[in-house]
Structures are given as structure tokens and as C-alpha cells.
Amino acid sequence: MSYSFYFPTRFFVSNNISTDLPSLIESKPGQDAVLVLADQGVVRAGITQPIIEALANDNKRVSIFNDIPGNPDINDVEKAMRVAQDCQPHLIIAIGGGSVIDTAKAIAILSTHNGVTWEDLQWGRAKIVNSALPLIAIPTTAGTGSEVTHVAVIGDSKGFKKGVVHPSLFPSVALLDASLTKTLPSNLTAATGMDALVHGIEAYLGKRANPMTNLYALRAIKDIVHWLPEAVHHGENLEARKAMLQASSWAGIAFDQAGLGLCHALCGPLANHYHVHHGLGNTVLLPATLAFNALAINAEKWAPLRDALGLPTDAQPAILEEWATKFIRGLGLPTKLRELGVQPSSIEKMAQETLQMAMIGNNIRGASFEDCKYILEKSL
Ligand SMILES: [Fe+2]
């Protein structure tokens, strides 16, 4: 097979972000304006303050915008953009989960594309032609992998979540500090960690998987299976938090290049109809999706996955559904769509919409409307 692998982001794992951050900023005379993007939860948790102090002590002019909700849309991007237009930053720093980092990617791009809106880029009315502003992405959850990917997913004016993909969207630096994730509540640690696990599994099973992405995906799966229960049940364990933060990035690197699959495809309409947390949606859909995909996993593909999951050598792919259900229960998360408020009446519509999701084409096994309906019904 022929394949390529491109990952230009500087990957920095830090034990003390306040010390390390200034060293990662290229100092140029007169270019000292920094825009920090965050969400209110991160600010309340006291995560932003030491970082802002470190920047101020490094003689940076710091502006802050922290009004970014979960699942941001173009109105949120416009609000952040107005702040960027006022402070004219030379550098963007994103501190938060995928919502904050994706918004920051949009601001980094729009700042170098006068007169272009994010919706123009979403719907192909304009193209990314310039480099983005430098962006340092500091994740505070171990899940989305946005700090290492070249995609930003933001709601358009009708609330439809639409991704923009371009090499200019790779952050300049992904700066990981596990201590920032210590305050994340256990239910969110579990849901975001499951998102990362599904990234790893779908990247590994995806049609576009290659030997490089498999390295990242399998190691991510192995570490998440080992460390996620510990991070959920003993959130103060920094070793577990660090392992999860790294594994989430590795799963991100893998899916960014290898693509995702049916579980994420099904999750799109589910999020549109019920606004369920992305990680929770993937969690609940995983067992039935794995049962469906198990039939397409051959012996060569199975052995490394079986080992990464820590299953015995005589285990067969058919065990995946039972394994996933048990793993999810161990994290204290729901395993059925009904627990998320999903009604049987919406199954057909969601199955139909799943067919429109590009990710379905990358799934290891082709899925029809009837297949999607079956998986959703089984997950109900
Ligand atoms: Fe995801």
C-alpha cells in the first residue's frame, strides 16, 4: 500500500506549564499581543490564572475571551473574532476541551483572512489560502485530540455541525500538562476518555488506516484501557491523568490521518437531535457498532487489537460487544440510548441521516440504512 503521514505540530509534554509556556513562544520585537481563549469552567477551576500570569511576567500583552460554550457555533466564533479584531493578536492560546480549541483554530485562520467568515469556509464559498496565526493548544480534557488534528468542527447558522479540514488548522504547539486535568469530574473524565478510545478503535479499523496510524492507535487503545478506569475512579492520580492525556493525543493523531467510522457517523445525528455529550453518544453506540463490525475483522487485523485490549489469545472478535459493555459499566457510564432520553420514534430519521455522514465510508464494514437502524435499535 502507498500512504503518507503528516504531523507538523510540536508535541510538548510538560510537568510545569507556567515555566515551559514562555519558552515555547517565539519572541519577536513588537509582536507581544496574545489572545487566550478558554471556557468559563476552565477559568472557574483556576486553570487559566497561572498561565496568564506566566505570560504577563514574560512581557506579553494578554487579552482573554472565555465565553465559549460546549458545541460552539458560528455566533460564538464571531464573538471571539470581535475580541481578536480589537486586540490584534500575534499568537492565540487555547486552554480547554475540543470546543475551545476548535474555536481557536477558527480565530487563528480568520485573523489572516480578511472579509472571510467561518461559514464561508464551511460551505466552500471561500478557501483557506494563508497560514494561520500561531496557535498553542493546551487541552484540559483527555478526549477530543483537537490539539493534534487539522480539523475544526463548529455549528453553522442552522446549528449543523460541520468540519473544516486544512493543514493550516494544525496547532503550532500541543502543550500537555496532566495537572490541568486533575479537577475534571469523574463522569466527564469517563465520557471524554471513551471518545478517545473510540477514536483509537475507529482509526485502527478504518479503511484508511496505515502502519503509522496503527502505531498511534494501538498504543492509545492499550493505554486507555489500562488507565481510564484509574483516572475515573482516582482522579488525583497524576500518572493516570498523564497517560490519558497522551493517549488521547495519540488517538487524535491516528484518526486525523486514518479517519473515523460508523460509531462517530451514528453519533452525528444523535448529537443533532438530542444534544447528547459527544463522548457519551459514542460510548452508548460502541457495543452494538463493534458487534456489527466484528464480522469484518479478519485474523490479521484482530490479533493486534485483541492484544491492545488485553484480551486472552483465544478471544475472537465476537467478544467485542460484551467486552465494551463491561468496560463502560466499570466506568459508571450508561450503556443504552434510552438512558440519554432517546425516543424510538427518532430511530429511522437518525439512521437516514447517518448515511449522509462522510465517516460511514471509512468504516471497516459497509453499512446500509437497515444496518444503521438495527444498530440504533439494539443500542436503545
Ligand atoms: Fe470523537
Give a concise summary:
This protein is α/β, with parallel strands linked by helices and 380 residues long. The chain is built from 15 helices and 8 strands. It is 49% helix and 11% strand.
Which overall shape is indicated by the principal axes computed on the Cα atoms?
Answer: globular
List the ions, cofactors and other small molecules found in this model. Answer: fe (ii) ion
Strand order across the biggest sheet? 1-8-5-4-2-3
How many separate domains make up the residues? 2
What top-tier CATH class of the largest domain fits best?
Answer: Mainly Alpha
What would you give as the CATH superfamily of the largest domain? Dehydroquinate synthase-like - alpha domain
Average pLDDT, rounded to a whole number, is: 96
Supply the helix-strand structural class. Answer: alpha/beta
Instruction: Supply the CATH architecture of the largest domain.
Output: Up-down Bundle
Low-confidence stretches: none
